[in-house]
Design a protein that fits this description.
Layout: E1 2-8, E2 14-20, E3 23-29, E4 43-47, H1 57-68, E5 72-76, H2 88-103, H3 108-133, E6 144-148, H4 151-160, E7 164-170, H5 177-182, E8 190-195, H6 203-212, E9 218-223, H7 233-246
Parallel strand pairs: 4-5, 4-6, 6-7, 7-8, 8-9
Antiparallel strand pairs: 1-2, 2-3, 3-5
Helix pairs in contact: 2-3, 3-4
Length: 247
């Protein structure tokens, strides 16, 4: 892991860009993490919807707030996202998906062709990143959390990665078939956020996904409004959820 830049933000959070081979990422750590004898910060992996770039303002705001609550927060760009090159097939699938959604046409098969391979390729990169992050002296080696709108990635990681002890998912209406089946194998504590009027994530599909999770502790928070209307207090509740399971 090679750190390429660092910036101390107004809230004391340290924001550092890094590369790990071809993987670009960002790590946010609380201001106290750099002090001598400071306790190690629990790690939260934070991913945005279907691999949108790590520089997305909503993701950065969530990451900064979570870091200010005492967590180390990391995100990476998936292959074909952010500044990473996209193949011609990826570009065509994304264009087909946008066109179908705007036209109100069925999108399931297009979505599968785009997102299913993205998940398969992203999981090993996140695991490699997790290995490297847990070697940093300021990050605790205990349980790890996952938080983000890329529910499909979080489901796969929760199934294959035993170090992840709790997860918060956003939406979840469109999740590939493989991860809908895998949801039954997820047994860690979950906090599931649903925007009731999110036209981009069919409500009933999200409710069915929540029902499929095998976790004994799973909580659904539903709020009125569209995709980007999640109330800020849900971020506060999300940190309290992490506190219960990671601290």
């Amino acid at each position: 892991m090679h750190f390429t830049s660092e910036q101390r933000l107004d809230d004391g959070v340290l924001e550092r860009e890094f590369t790990l081979g071809e993987i670009p990422g960002t790590l946010w750590t609380p201001g106290s993490a750099q002090a001598p004898q400071a306790p190690q910060a629990p790690l939260v992996l934070m991913a945005h919807n279907n691999g949108l770039p790590k520089a997305d303002p909503r993701l950065r705001a969530r990451a900064r707030y979570t870091a200010s609550r005492g967590y180390a927060v990391a995100t990476i760009d998936a292959a074909g996202c952010g500044d990473r090159p996209r193949s011609a097939a990826d570009e065509q699938a994304r264009a087909d998906l946008r066109r179908a959604m705007q036209a109100g046409e069925p999108v399931d098969e297009i979505f599968e062709s785009l997102i299913a391979p993205l998940v398969e390729n992203a999981v090993p990169e996140w695991q490699t990143t997790l290995d490297a992050l847990l070697e940093l002296p300021e990050i605790g080696g205990g349980p790890v959390g996952y938080s983000g709108g890329w529910a499909a990635l979080g489901i796969r990681l929760a199934v294959v990665e035993p170090r992840i002890a709790a997860a918060g998912f956003f939406a979840g209406g469109f999740v590939p078939r493989a991860q809908r089946e895998e949801a039954r194998q997820v047994t860690i504590p979950l906090l599931f956020l649903l925007q009731w009027d999110d036209t981009g994530n069919p409500r009933q599909r999200a409710l069915d996904l929540f029902d499929a999770f095998g976790s004994k502790e799973k909580t659904l928070h539903a709020n009125p409004g569209g995709h980007t209307g999640t109330p800020w207090f849900e971020l506060e509740d999300g940190c309290r959820f992490l506190d219960r399971h990671l601290k």
